[in-house]
Write a structure and sequence with these properties.
There is one protein chain. The protein is mostly beta strands. About 0% of the residues lie in helices and about 40% in strands. The chain is built from no helices and five strands. Strands 4-3-2-1-5 form a five-stranded antiparallel sheet, with no helix packed on it. The protein is globular.
């Protein structure tokens, strides 16, 4: 997995009824865009994250 600052990580819910969570990458701490990442969730909570297989990267649109 590779991400850059501004990308979004979508963490899919693992149980029925659990919603996906979206976090923005605010800092990349690994080499060449690899985890861990410092992320900020929609509620403002920040944490360090090494995403698992239930997470996908939505790359920032370079046109914006």
């Amino acid at each position: 997995m590779r991400a850059t600052v501004g990308d979004r990580l979508v963490v899919h819910g693992r149980i029925v009824g659990q919603h996906d969570r979206i976090a923005e990458v605010v800092e990349v701490l690994g080499a060449d865009g690899t985890p861990p990442y410092r992320v900020r969730f929609e509620d403002g909570h920040e944490t360090l994250m090494s995403p698992g297989p239930d997470t996908v990267v939505q790359h920032e649109d370079p046109a914006n």
